[in-house]
Amino acid sequence: HPPTALLPMPLYPLSQPLRVAFTASRTANFAPGNLDQPIVFDQLHSNLGEMYDTHIGRFTCPMNGTYVFIFHILKLAINVPLYINLMRNEEVMVSAYANDGAPDHETASNHAILPLFQGDQVWLRLHRGAIYGSTWKYSTFSGFLLYQD
């Protein structure tokens, strides 16, 4: 038998995947004195997709998918414990804590892999304590799209 000829197959361009990623840092101390305050990270280092808003400190989900969020917060050197919440809308997803009973700088950090729907907002809440901010970028918040649904 002669070899079978391959039929021509149309090639369709793949749709460009959505690129979503951000890293922001806090450049000034934050000691609000009230519980449960949103943390605004004022310096952007990357903001692919432009979904992180430095005015309100929130990431807004552009499309359904699974996202990764990471945060590292340096505690201000005061004798008050630091409690940080990673929030999805108004719900606590994960938390971080730093306190050794002394007025020292310590780091609170955590991460989460979250399924999100378009329009969901992810942000960090200072439940209690105070944050050290500086141009050395000790306190940071990052997120990125792992995969689209």
TrEMBL record:
Record-linked InterPro entries: C1q_dom (IPR001073), Collagen/C1q_domain (IPR050392), Tumour_necrosis_fac-like_dom (IPR008983)
Location relative to the cell: Secreted, Extracellular space, Extracellular matrix
PROSITE patterns, sorted: C1Q (PS50871)
UniProt entry tagged with the keyword Secreted: yes
Pfam families, A to Z: C1q (PF00386)
Alphabetically ordered keywords of this record: Collagen, Extracellular matrix, Secreted
Top-level taxon: Eukaryota
Keyword Iron-sulfur appears in the UniProt entry: no
Domain spans labelled C1q: 15-149
Chief subcellular location: secreted
PANTHER family: C1Q DOMAIN-CONTAINING PROTEIN, EMILIN ELASTIN MICROFIBRIL INTERFACE-LOCATED PROTEIN ELASTIN MICROFIBRIL INTERFACER
Name listed for the protein in its UniProt record: Caprin-2
Organism annotation: Goodea atripinnis
